[in-house]
Amino acid sequence: MSDARARGDVPAGAARPGVALVNLGCRVNRAELDLMASELERAGVPIVGEDEAAAVVVNTCAVTGEAEAKARKAVRRAAARPGAPTVVACGCVANLFAGELSSIAPNVVVERDKRRVAARVLEALGLPEGGVDDAGALAPTPTPTGRTRPGVKVQDGCDNRCTYCIIWKARGAGRSEPPEHVVSEVRAAVARGAREVVLTGINVGSYRASDASGRTLALPGLIEVLLAETDVERLRVASIEPPDVTPGLCRVMAASGGRVAPFLHVCLQSGCDETLRRMARVYRTDLFRRVVDTARSLVPGIALGTDLIVGFPGETDEEFERSLAFCREMRFAKMHVFRYSCRPGTPAATMPGQVDPHVMAERSRRARELSAEMRLAEARALVGTEDRALVQYVGRAVSGGLFDVAVDPALPLDSLVPVRLTAVRDDATLVGEAL
């Protein structure tokens, strides 16, 4: 599906061909797509819907076999549109299967280097690289694609080798952006009107980079620099691995005065140690429990999210029950539930004990029921408290703990509003009154 909202704003004085942006996959992909959009915008290229586009960028994802199939389908669909627009395919599927994608149609171009995507689009449109800076003619939004909470990529790649994952092959070894670059990107997002910026990465907690003075910063140090050197009103940390939720990180969050959102999405995947071992995860449940206890003791009111995979090869009924019980103990405010998807090219794909799809479906149903139950309980506990809610849609905002908040429809979009949370609906949406 497209991550871009068609802007329809053509730079004054020129009817330039437009580009459509289609994003599949993770928040890192979305942040990278925003960067491409910014480069195209500076060249005066309008972001449009696919029906109007002379070129289409498809940013692909290979996290599962299903995601890979969706990527191929998106490329085929874009290539078959009337007028045969140039389709620039990039992302993880492009890195792993460049030849296969380029053979889909003559108008498909594969670009493995995302830093070169904008240049390839300009080339396809017959426009000079660098172009003109017509950004001022476009309606100001926090991102060129119209999203309210832009992501800034601080890290890429991963050095872990989870048995279900192929992303480390597509993205390579872990590497981090220089602090000065991150500061510049956050400042640019703020200049566009962003009130909240999300720090993203494939393994964001592994951030390690040296600044201009030679000082090496980990993620807590980077956040301190961003708080000191930018005017961003709220930072949010994207998904993080349990070992990287350190007391140092939690103390920085707690000391920020609300400028770091009190929310952490700590990846669990399974609440059963035997399953974690088969997954080759770098922690066990005892460490995860300590991490949760540390976060809750140091960051008042923190909300916790996670990912859970059900039906991983070898997962027995008893292992699933233990996993579910552990999730209940952790009281997650947000839990993404995934059925295991066999990913060719990974060790898990050939493991014994592949779980029947019907069994996976039932486990997924139960896990989603627990997710909804926990979210509602955590939302109810917030009634009577105060927070700052970022207005993303008319009458709808998001809290620091990543809860949906119903607010006055008259509140302006992209504003960060102090609210008192007065009630909660059955779907865990909170009701907020502006203070």
UniProtKB/TrEMBL annotation:
Keywords: 4Fe-4S, Iron, Iron-sulfur, Metal-binding, S-adenosyl-L-methionine, Transferase
UniProt keyword 4Fe-4S, yes or no: yes
Key word Protein biosynthesis present: no
InterPro entries: Elp3/MiaA/NifB-like_rSAM, Methylthiotransferase, Methylthiotransferase_CS, Methylthiotransferase_N, Methylthiotransferase_N_sf, rSAM, rSAM_horseshoe, rSAM_sf
EC number: 2.8.4.-
Organism (species): Olsenella profusa
Name of the featured protein: MiaB/RimO family radical SAM methylthiotransferase
Gene Ontology molecular function: transferase activity
Required cofactor names: [4Fe-4S] cluster
SMART domains, per the entry: Elp3 (SM00729)
Lineage, highest ranks first: Bacteria, Bacillati, Actinomycetota, Coriobacteriia, Coriobacteriales
Domain MTTase N-terminal: 17-126
Domain Radical SAM core, residue spans: 144-377
Pfam families, per the entry: Radical_SAM, UPF0004
